[in-house]
Amino acid sequence: MHWKTTGILVALLLALGIFYYVYEVREGPAREKAAEVKGRLWKDLQAKDIDDVVLKREADTLHLKKSGDRWAMVTPVESRVDAGPVDGLTSSLASTRVEREIDPSPSKLGDYGLETPAAEVTFTAKGQTHGLRLGGKNPTGTWVYAQEAGKPAVFLAPESLLQDARKAAADFRDKTVLTFEAKDVKGLAVRPATGPAIEAALKGADDWQLTQPLAARADRPQISGLLDRLRAAKIKEFVAESPKSLAEYGLDRPLRLALVLGEGKDRAEKGLRIGKAVPEKKAAYAQREGEPGVFLVEDELVKAVPTAPTGLRDKTVFPYERAKVERLEVESPKGKVALTLESGAWKMTAPAALKADEGAVSDLLWKARDLRAKDFVAEDQNRLGAYGLDHPAVRLSVWEKDAKAPRVLVLAPAKEKDRAYAAVPGEGPVAAVEASALADLGRSAQDLRDKSLFAAFEARDVTRVQIERTGQTLVADRTGEDDWALSAPKKGKARGTRLTDLVLAVRSLHWKEIVAEQGADPVRYGLDRPVATLTLSGKDGKTVAALAVGKTESGQTFVRVPGQPALYAIDGKALGDLPGSPEDLLL
């Protein structure tokens, strides 16, 4: 009997497989298609086949016509259209469903709002004309009464169809201010109503140059940002199609923005004319060059269009290649400092041979590279003396790899407290910059030397911490990555996080000031009898770091590294609250 049961099960599975194949695989698509067209008013109609639509409403008649793949508005104005709303309308028409027939032969169309329809839609697809009359909404408000053109029956159609058919003409219009691709722009011009024109041209792949009213480097990011903003700009409101007077909109003497697209025989211009501001709408009147229509654009777009050469000019004062710098010198009222890059690390060579602070040197170089002009006050290099740059307050010289001579930046204070003057002798113009540049670039040897109290070490290599304070010596030993145990004067599991944090704090200690180079007057700083002494040791018992801690006053703590004469001031909060008893560390 067992083989019979197995045979029956096999037969059932085979039958189920055949049923699934026939029902789902072979007949499924046809069934889905039938379900999709079920209830549709025009079963064979596809949205892509619709090429002409007329919407007749109480206020106006809207005519949309397709040519090739593009739609255009014919009435009430000739205009480009936004594909989105048109595609939505044609999709709604193609998928119009008859939810339910209400009256096959109505005697009073007024009962359904169809005596004077809210909208009448006439469209063509594949040479055939179709029509639809849309009346009032049903009591639930989710459906609308409708009639197919030439047929008496009243049925319910989706209310969304009425929404699409009653959209204002402006909703269908293309609101793109200027249509272009940024990659095609080869030049641009800003022509104010008064004052000189500003022109820039693309040289090579991405090198923008000012050509009018002077020849200079252009600000590539600024131009790219302007083009991106212009390309994304949308018309806020359509104002007038054929205005009798442009003066009303301030467009008789507009601010003109022109784009040069393509090159040679493909060269073309597209332009925007900007007129009077409309503050209450946060907008301004505008026109496309060569087109009569007046519309509103966002005032943020207007603000982005520079009306002075400085707006498009590259404001980099001191261009150089940061990665190629191998040597630098700073001369300022704080003295002369010389540094050189050796084996990837900066070293001070004057006024003394010292290790340099990598972060401070990097910050100096980036601040010089990122220095930007607020304005350009002179183009003539012969006028450096007029701005105090013949005897500068700060001189920064950088040597790039394989360069025979340094690049030099000079700075001098201006009469205005918030400004300074800067220039690259023999090269650039005189620029007005932020007064803070004098301090940012006029660094001293102390500003640029390494202020680490200890040579670099890994926190995980510290296996013992000893703290001598208040007549007690606390000793803690590492038992795991963040686990510590107190071994003297009491024994027990210690607060691992607190000890690890202390090790990290010691490792990162930097002095703020050397208060006594040769260790004079330790009593003054509380270092004749230190408040505490810290010793960090490694696995081999050798000292990794040791520190004597003195007084704290005015936000500074005075310290000394045993075996070295110098006394230092560090940030008063750098070490935190040092443990003073076993109870401070025991869990």
Describe the 3D structure.
There is one protein chain. The chain is an alpha+beta fold. The protein is built from eleven helices and 36 strands. The strands form four sheets. A nine-stranded antiparallel β-sheet has the order 4-3-2-1-6-7-8-9-5. It has a nine-stranded antiparallel β-sheet with strand order 13-12-11-10-15-16-17-18-14. The protein has a nine-stranded antiparallel β-sheet with strand order 22-21-20-19-24-25-26-27-23. Strand 12 and strand 13 form a beta hairpin. Helix 3 crosses helix 4. It is flat. About 1% of the residues have low confidence.
Fold blueprint:
Elements: H1 2-26, H2 28-37, E1 50-57, E2 61-67, E3 70-75, E4 79-80, H3 83-94, E5 100-103, E6 119-125, E7 128-137, E8 143-148, E9 154-158, H4 159-165, H5 169-172, E10 185-191, E11 198-203, E12 207-212, E13 216-217, H6 220-232, E14 237-240, E15 255-261, E16 268-278, E17 283-288, E18 294-298, H7 299-303, E19 325-332, E20 335-342, E21 345-350, E22 354-355, H8 358-369, E23 375-378, E24 394-400, E25 407-413, E26 419-423, E27 430-434, H9 436-441, H10 445-448, E28 464-469, E29 472-478, E30 484-488, E31 492-494, H11 496-507, E32 513-516, E33 532-537, E34 543-553, E35 556-560, E36 567-571
Antiparallel strand pairs: 1-2, 1-6, 2-3, 3-4, 5-9, 6-7, 7-8, 8-9, 10-11, 10-15, 11-12, 12-13, 14-18, 15-16, 16-17, 17-18, 19-20, 19-24, 20-21, 21-22, 23-27, 24-25, 25-26, 26-27, 28-29, 28-33, 29-30, 30-31, 32-36, 33-34, 34-35, 35-36
